[in-house]
Amino acid sequence: MCGIVGIVARSPVNQLLYDGLTVLQHRGQDAAGICTADGHSFHMHKGRGLVRDVFRTRDMRNLAGNVGIAHCRYPTAGSASSVAESQPFYVNSPFGIVLGHNGNLINADELRRALFAEDRRHINTNSDSEVLLNVLAHELGDACEGGNRLTPDAIFRAVGAVHRRLKGAYAVVALIAGYGLLAFRDPFGIRPLVIGRADTDKGVEFLVASESVALDALGFKVMRDVAPGEAVLIDHSGNLYSRQCAEHPQLNPCIFEYVYLARPDSVIDGVSVYESRRAMGRSLADRVRAAGLADEIDVVIPIPDSSRPSALELAAMLNRPYREGFIKNRYIGRTFIMPGQELRRKSVRQKLNAMAVEFREKNVLLVDDSIVRGTTSREIVQMARECGARKVFFASAAPPVRHANVYGIDMPTRSELIAAGRDEAEVALAIGADAVIYQQLDALVEAVRASNRSITRFDSSCFDGVYITGDVSSDYLAGIEASRQDGESASGTRLSSYQLDLGLTAAD
Question: What pTM does this model have?
Fold first, then answer.
């Protein structure tokens, strides 16, 4: 999970890119970077930390040019402590290319070996994004063999070759020196990418980003989502070219974007994130009734923030009071990536404070977007009991998370997932709740599809274990499991010590 932005404008883009990253900060807080193009020259600044901490006035002044890309990073592989793995990445052969990537490549190790042995390209980091950049650079070079110019047609042929080589999920923005902005999306459309335009006095401007909220905030009008397998090229003059570059594209967006990852005010692939979360609350209310708990509940309380739309709708459907029982400290950074369970438990107390008046002598239904490890869920249940709750029920707007995610979310392996091998009663016992109510997967799919019936299938692999790319083997999953146990990946590279804990907060 990362945030990417690309802009072709008629005036300097440094401030627009900065503002775009701040709007997408919820997608990555580990590192941030901006690169602008001024003619054939690139200007880049990147570093670890939040957007507001990485960029100073002097850095912004150096980012000259009317074209640029930006990236905020959430680490899924590689070393989270390495500044070198901040994006965008750059190569200078056969063209100057700068790239930012959201997603995860399943065959990164295989590609890395091929790039060294066959393409004679050296990869400097453990990042699969640098691998992707070098694959693109190699294919662009091949497209121009024999003295051919780098035309839009050649660029699209290169992207087609990239699609044939890559396995996994990717949404990409890239700058090609002297040409402009290139953006493309994997043939399954797993990770989101949207394009918009703004008509100014100086001419039309274009923006591509991970979520539509970035376009809204920057004054751009949404044109459409970039289609699975499609590439979009916008040259320095503002001419837009697009082409379908995949042989068999199909839209299979990540359903977890709608549950948790995206901001509620975004629209992804024609689906309002907010409306889908409201629909999740309605179907979850049916599950509460089916469990025979509706009459026992005195109050419905969300775990801030992403569960609020679901909790509001659920409370209305059950005709029960909705209350804000937890106050969120917004001056502490996002805490869904923590290096250890003890820190996660401590972070819950720092991030959330329970108001005893909403819990005392009540049967409380807590609503969260999901339960992953259960570490933070257990702590939140304990906080409710300390405030005097008689009974604590816990409802998840998502189904049980029982499988690893390999498409760009650093979700734990089965041994770390609390729902793996447990039913609802056993999960309730593990987190200290009187009962746990999970969303059903078919109801979740229906809640999201209600806004766009043309979507027939989602990536819901963390719930059902079905990996839509069809190339995730048991050996690959076993390698991930082993890498978490010994801190090394299957190829010997250090993995991030940061892990995803989605049971606490929502998208800011």
Answer: 0.90
